[in-house]
Amino acid sequence: MDLRASTSGRSHAHCGHSQQRMLLTRTTPRVRAQSRKLCVVPKAFTSSCRELLREYGSIGDDTYSRVNALHGGLLDDIPADTKLMPVLHHLTNNIGLSSQQLQTVLVKHPKVFTYALDDVQDVTAFLTNDLGLSQPDVQAVVSRYPAVFSYSVKGHLRPQLAYLTSLGVQDVAAAVVARPMLLGEGIETVIRFLKVCGVPRRQMASLIVTYPIDYCCRFIFSAQATRGGSQPTA
């Protein structure tokens, strides 16, 4: 028997085992890190809307139950994984809403959690890029008027921005931060109402920005009112 061959074989085997142990030692932390990541995501996606809002938004059960009851069980019907969680993550991580602001959004417009994430991101991009709002200003607009997410950027928000500019609003961004409902519906009706009241066009811009008009109100115009007769009624 060749002792040198035997010793050499054991040496190669020992080296092979050592290399395997070193490889396992090097890869184990990475595998564990990946395991931790895989454990976090499924936990969130298997939670209910109530649990997600409580855990990530600090929304109490009383608030959840009240909002859910007022809107016919809307929150219970929202798919937690495909709808609520992506939007919730965007509102808290990307926009940076605080727990109090998130609760305000939930109470004012819970339908925001039913919207597609792409649409919510498009509106956020409009506020940031088209209007040039800072993150704190975006937070203020979203928390005060979360229904802004219900509008199409191309179909409504950009035309509305152009319309406000055409009225002579000097700083549209500042005006929107002060009165976010300027981005909503009803501005044309208010302008028509002001025309009937005899307000000069040059004063309309400052009026709609400084005066707390309810832009969502609907005015009933009679034939006489449109001809300059009796005043319109709300």
Automatic annotation (TrEMBL):
InterPro entries: MTERF, MTERF_sf
Membrane spanning stretches: none
Record key words, sorted: Transcription, Transcription regulation, Transcription termination, Transit peptide
GO molecular function: nucleic acid binding
One Pfam family, short name: mTERF
Chain residue ranges for the region called Disordered: 1-26
Compositional bias (Polar residues): 1-10, 17-26
Domain of life: Eukaryota
One of the protein's GO biological processes: DNA-templated transcription termination
Keyword check for Cytoplasm: no
Family assignment from sequence similarity: Belongs to the mTERF family.
Protein's UniProt name: Uncharacterized protein
Organism, scientific name: Chlamydomonas leiostraca
